[in-house]
Q: What sequence folds into this?
C-alpha cells in the first residue's frame, strides 16, 4: 500500500522562460509528487524562447519558438492557465486572485513576472504607431504597421542596446529603413567600449542601418508618413513607426502592492535562497533583486529557478552568482563581452587589437602583471569567446596579445581547468562534461542529455566538440544509416572510382536501399561531377520533389516557373512572352528580390507547354528549384551610374552564365556591386563582388536566412581573370568538402584554419589543387545544357509531367485559387500543407 502524500500547491505567476524552467526543475525532482503546480500565464501562448524572438520575423511561426514541453501534456499535477494574470496577493490568507476572478490558495507562491520595456516619457510616446519589442504580439503589431508604411519607409528604434539592434534588424527584414537613435555615445554601451562601439557602428551601417548616437528623442507626433520624430539636436525623421527599446524594468508592481520589500531601483528583494520578505513567497528571474541586484540575462534566471525548486523539496541551494558574459550575433555581426569588460578593476591593463580594415576589434583586460585574465570584448569575430570566457580570473596560458592575434596560438580545451564553466546558461563545468564523456556520452546529443550543456543558446557547442575530440572520441561523419562516409568522402569516392549510379555506389560502399537523405545527396554529387541530365536513367528516381519536376512545388500542389535573367537583364520580346504565358495560363506574377520574374500556379502537365514558349523566346531554366546557382544580382554599374567604378552588369552576366546549373550542397547566390555603396547587397551573398577603382574586391560566405552572415573579404583589387579564377576555386572547393545541405557560411566557420586556410587554398594554392579545381569548373562550363530544353527534346522525360499516370489528359481537380482580392492565392481545399523538407526549397 502506497503511503499517502501530503501534497502542497505551488502557484507560479508568469510563464516565461524562467517560469517554465522552474516548473521543469520542480517536477523532474519531485518523484513523490509532493507538489502540484498552478501556472498563471498572462500571454495567450505558453512559454517560448524570448531570447530568439527575432527569428520569428520572416517565418512568423510561433510554434518554432515554443519551449519543449511547455504545455505539460500528460502531467496531472500541473495546471496551466493561459491568458490569465495574477491581480492581487493576500499574504495572510495565502491566496492569489486572478484576472478571471478566481481565488487560488498556495503553500508556496513563485513570482516569475519578468520585466517590462521601459518607454521614456517622450511627448507622443503613446502614439498608435509606437511599439515596444518584447512579445510575439508586439512583433505582430510591428509587422502590420510596417506593411501599412510600405517598403523603404523609415522605422525609428529608440535605443541602441542589444534589443534595440535586434529590433532594427527586424525592421530591416520587414523592408523598412531602420534609424537607430541612442542617447549614449556608442551602441551597446553596457557590453562594448568606445573602440568596439566604433567598429560595431561601422559594421551595422554597412548593412543599411542609419545610426545616430549621442542624441535623444524630443517628441513624436503624427507626420506625413505616419509619425514625425524630432531629436534633441533638432533633426527630424519622417517614419512609418517607432519602436522603443530603451531597456527593461522589473515587473514588481504586484509584489509592491502586497507589501513585499522592493529595491530602491525596482525588483523584488530576495536572499540567496530566492525567498522574499514573506517566507512563503519566492521570486525568480528578471523580477528578482537578489540581495538587491537584478540580473537581466536568462542564464542567472535559470539559476534562480533551480534554487527555488531545490528549496521547495527541502534542499539548501543558494544563488551561485551570475556570469554576465554575452555572445551575440546581431545582424550577422559577432559581439561578445565577458568578465570585467570595461577594465574597472584597480590596476587593470588592456591589450587591444583594432583592425578597422577587417572590421574586427578584440580587447583583453588583464591584471596589473598581465598574468590573470579579467575580461574582454570581441566585435566582428568572436570565435575566441568560448575558450577565453572560462579563463576569467585564471592565469593566462600565453601572452595576451597572442591570444587575440590572428597569427597567435589557438586556445584549446586542454588549456581550461576542470572547474571552468563551459555552458554559462546551465552552469556546466568542463569537469562535468568530461565526466559525462567518461560515462559513455560519445556525441554532442549525448552530452546535452546528460549535462544540459548546449541546450539553451548553443554557444558552447563548438567547445563540446573539442572536449569530445580531446577525450579521444571519434565523432561520426556518416551521411546517414546507409553510408558511413561523409558527403565529402562520398564525393571523392565518386570522383576517383567513376561510379555513376546510386545503386553501384551503395552496393560497393554502403548498405540497404537508401533513404531521403542519401538519395538526393548522391544525386547532387553525380550532377556536380558530370554534365548528365538529372532525369536521365536511375538518377530521376533519386531527386526530391522539386528536381523531379524541375520546378518549385507550392502549397496547393501547383508549381512555379522561373526563367533565368542573367544580371537581371531581359529583352522586351522576352517580357512580352512572359506576360502572354502568364495571361494564357492564369499565373500569378511576382518580381523577386533576385532580379527575375516568378510565375506561380502552373499545373504539372502545363509545365512543358509553358517552358516550350519560354525556351523558344530564348530563355532557360533559372534553377530556382535546385541546390545550385540561383541568381547573380547586380546594380547598373559604370554603364549608367555616376558612382559606378566597374561594369557590374557585365560581370554579373558573365558569372551567371559561367556558373548556371552548377549543382552544390546547398543553393548558391552571388551578387556584383559597381561601387562601395553596395546597391546589389553583395556582402550578403555566398559570393559577393564589389568594384573598386583598381578592380574587384571578393567577399565569400555571406548568407541570409534565420542566422544572417556577412561575407568576409577573401582578396582585394583583383583583375577580371584573377577574380574568376578565385571564384572557380572557391565554389569547387566548397562543393567538394561541404556537408549535406551546408551553406557556405557554416562551412567556412567549420573549416580548419578558418579564413586563413581558405586564403591559403584559394589564393596561394597551398594544397596544390588549384589546377584541379579550375579544370573541374571548366568541365562544368563546357558541358552545360539547359535542363528544360533537354526535357522538351526527350519524349520519355516529357511523359512524367502528368497529374495522374493512369489519366494523363486529366487535370488535378483539387487545385483551386482565390482570385477575389488583388492577388491570386492558392486554396488548399482541406489538403495538408506540403512539409518544407519535402519541398526541398
A:
Amino acid at each position: 500500500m502506497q503511503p499517502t502524500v501530503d501534497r502542497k500547491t505551488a502557484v507560479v505567476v508568469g510563464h516565461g522562460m524562467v517560469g517554465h524552467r522552474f516548473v521543469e526543475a520542480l517536477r523532474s525532482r519531485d518523484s513523490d509528487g509532493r507538489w502540484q503546480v498552478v501556472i498563471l500565464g498572462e500571454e495567450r501562448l505558453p512559454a517560448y524562447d524570448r531570447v530568439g524572438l527575432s527569428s520569428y520575423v520572416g517565418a512568423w511561426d510561433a510554434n518554432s519558438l515554443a519551449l519543449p514541453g511547455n504545455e505539460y501534456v500528460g502531467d496531472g499535477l500541473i495546471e496551466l492557465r493561459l491568458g490569465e494574470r495574477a491581480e492581487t496577493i493576500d499574504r495572510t490568507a495565502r491566496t492569489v486572485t486572478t484576472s478571471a476572478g478566481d481565488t487560488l490558495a498556495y503553500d508556496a507562491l513563485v513570482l516569475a513576472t519578468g520585466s517590462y520595456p521601459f518607454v521614456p516619457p517622450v511627448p507622443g510616446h503613446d502614439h498608435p504607431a509606437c511599439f515596444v519589442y518584447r512579445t510575439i504580439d508586439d512583433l505582430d503589431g510591428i509587422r502590420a504597421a510596417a506593411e501599412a508604411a510600405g517598403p523603404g519607409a523609415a522605422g525609428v528604434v529608440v535605443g541602441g542596446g542589444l534589443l534595440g539592434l535586434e529590433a532594427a534588424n527586424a525592421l530591416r527584414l520587414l523592408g523598412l529603413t531602420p534609424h537607430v537613435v541612442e542617447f549614449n555615445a556608442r551602441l551597446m554601451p553596457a557590453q562594448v567600449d568606445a573602440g568596439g562601439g566604433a567598429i560595431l557602428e561601422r559594421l551595422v551601417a554597412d548593412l543599411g542601418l542609419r545610426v545616430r548616437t549621442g542624441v535623444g528623442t524630443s517628441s513624436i507626433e503624427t507626420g506625413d508618413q505616419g509619425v514625425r520624430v524630432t531629436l534633441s539636436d533638432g533633426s527630424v525623421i519622417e517614419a512609418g513607426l517607432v519602436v522603443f527599446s530603451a531597456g527593461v524594468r522589473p515587473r514588481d508592481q504586484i509584489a509592491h502592492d502586497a507589501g513585499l520589500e522592493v529595491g530602491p531601483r525596482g525588483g523584488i528583494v530576495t536572499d540567496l535562497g530566492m525567498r522574499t520578505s514573506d517566507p512563503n513567497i519566492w521570486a525568480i528571474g528578471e523580477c528578482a533583486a537578489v540581495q538587491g541586484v537584478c540580473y537581466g540575462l536568462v542564464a542567472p534566471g535559470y539559476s534562480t529557478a533551480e534554487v527555488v525548486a531545490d528549496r521547495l523539496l527541502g534542499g539548501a541551494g543558494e544563488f551561485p552568482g551570475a556570469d554576465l558574459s554575452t555572445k551575440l550575433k546581431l545582424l550577422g555581426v559577432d559581439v561578445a563581452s565577458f568578465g570585467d569588460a570595461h577594465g574597472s578593476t584597480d590596476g587593470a591593463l588592456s591589450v587591444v587589437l583594432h583592425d578597422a580594415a577587417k572590421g574586427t576589434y578584440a580587447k583583453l583586460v588583464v591584471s596589473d602583471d598581465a598574468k590573470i585574465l579579467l575580461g574582454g570584448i570581441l566585435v566582428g569575430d568572436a570565435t575566441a569567446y568560448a575558450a577565453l570566457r572560462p579563463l576569467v580570473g585564471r592565469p593566462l596560458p600565453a601572452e595576451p596579445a597572442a591570444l587575440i592575434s590572428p597569427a597567435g596560438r589557438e586556445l584549446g580545451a586542454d588549456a581550461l581547468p576542470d572547474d571552468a564553466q563551459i555552458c554559462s546558461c546551465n552552469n556546466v563545468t568542463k569537469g562535468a562534461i568530461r565526466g559525462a564523456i567518461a560515462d559513455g556520452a560519445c556525441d554532442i546529443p549525448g552530452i546535452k542529455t546528460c549535462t544540459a550543456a548546449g541546450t539553451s543558446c548553443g554557444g558552447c557547442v563548438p567547445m563540446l566538440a573539442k572536449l569530445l575530440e580531446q577525450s579521444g572520441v571519434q565523432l561520426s561523419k556518416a551521411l546517414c544509416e546507409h553510408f558511413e562516409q561523409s558527403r565529402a568522402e562520398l564525393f571523392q569516392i565518386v570522383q576517383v572510382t567513376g561510379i555513376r549510379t546510386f545503386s553501384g555506389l551503395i552496393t560497393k560502399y554502403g548498405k540497404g536501399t537508401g533513404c531521403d537523405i542519401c538519395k538526393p545527396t548522391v544525386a547532387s554529387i553525380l550532377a556536380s561531377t558530370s554534365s548528365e541530365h538529372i532525369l536521365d536513367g536511375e538518377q530521376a528516381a533519386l531527386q526530391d520533389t522539386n528536381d523531379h519536376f524541375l520546378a518549385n512545388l507550392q502549397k496547393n500542389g501547383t508549381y512555379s516557373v522561373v526563367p533565368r535573367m542573367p544580371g537581371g537583364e531581359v529583352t522586351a520580346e522576352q517580357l512580352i512572352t512572359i506576360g502572354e504565358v502568364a495571361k494564357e495560363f492564369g499565373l500569378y506574377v511576382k518580381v523577386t528580390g533576385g532580379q527575375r520574374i516568378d510565375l506561380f500556379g502552373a499545373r504539372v502537365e502545363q509545365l512543358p507547354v509553358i517552358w516550350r514558349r519560354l525556351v523558344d523566346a530564348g530563355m532557360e531554366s533559372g534553377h530556382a528549384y535546385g541546390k545550385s546557382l540561383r541568381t547573380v544580382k547586380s546594380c547598373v554599374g559604370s554603364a549608367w551610374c555616376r558612382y559606378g567604378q566597374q561594369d557590374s552588369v557585365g560581370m554579373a552576366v558573365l558569372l551567371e552564365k559561367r556558373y548556371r546549373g552548377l549543382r552544390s550542397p546547398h543553393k548558391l547566390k552571388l551578387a556584383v556591386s559597381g561601387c562601395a555603396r553596395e546597391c546589389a547587397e553583395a556582402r550578403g551573398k555566398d559570393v559577393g563582388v564589389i568594384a573598386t577603382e583598381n578592380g574587384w574586391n571578393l567577399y565569400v560566405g555571406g548568407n541570409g536566412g534565420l542566422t544572417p552572415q556577412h561575407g568576409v573579404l577573401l582578396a582585394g583589387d583583383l583583375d577580371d581573370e584573377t577574380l574568376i579564377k578565385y571564384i572557380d576555386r572557391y565554389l569547387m572547393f566548397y562543393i567538394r568538402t561541404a556537408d549535406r545541405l551546408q551553406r557556405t557560411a557554416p562551412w567556412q566557420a567549420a573549416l580548419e584554419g578558418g579564413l586563413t586556410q581558405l586564403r591559403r587554398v584559394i589564393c596561394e594554392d597551398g594544397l596544390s589543387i588549384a589546377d584541379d579545381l579550375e579544370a573541374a569548373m571548366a568541365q562544368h562550363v563546357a558541358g552545360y545544357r539547359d535542363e528544360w530544353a533537354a526535357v522538351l527534346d526527350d519524349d520519355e522525360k516529357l511523359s512524367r509531367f502528368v497529374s495522374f499516370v493512369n489519366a494523363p489528359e486529366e487535370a488535378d481537380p483539387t487545385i483551386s485559387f482565390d482570385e477575389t482580392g488583388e492577388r491570386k492565392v492558392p486554396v488548399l481545399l482541406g489538403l495538408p500543407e506540403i512539409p518544407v523538407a519535402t519541398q526541398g526549397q
Remarks:
- The longest strand covers residues 35-41.
- Residues 113 and 224 are 39 Å apart (CA to CA).
- DSSP finds 26 helices and 39 strands in the chain.
